[in-house]
Amino acid sequence: MSSPLSGISAEKRRQLAATLGLFAMLFITVGAVAATGPSTGVTKAFVAVAVAIAVLLGLIAWGVLRSVRLDVSEQRIDAAIAAAVAARGSGSLCSCGHDHDPTEMHYVGADPCAHDGTGDECSHSCDTCVLAALRPSPNRTRAQRLNAT
Fold this sequence. Notes:
With 149 residues, this protein is mostly helical. 54% of the residues lie in helices and 3% in strands.
């Protein structure tokens, strides 16, 4: 899934997140210093606004960093798929005898398939499929699937 942030390089987004984080810390500091002074209604309002701005900037920085992490992991999966295609050459990525939906990483067919978690009536084997670790599993995590290959 691409977002408008994906058009900006990861390094620039990391810099943006760091800058936003620094400004959030600045506003927290300003609010803390203002809170140590005499307590008036204006001071309390100023402290509340400074903390609110700091929280907002912190959340924006977290969101930008999250988009970087998601894009990097997506690029890693795309590279793994490209490497599998290159290593396999032409033809099917999997020797189980069935086509796979490349966007969903699952078997595409009329009969339910136990390997996809939708049934148990299939007779093919996905053990040799190079995409097996990337395919969702109803009972194993992605880390467990990657460690098994």
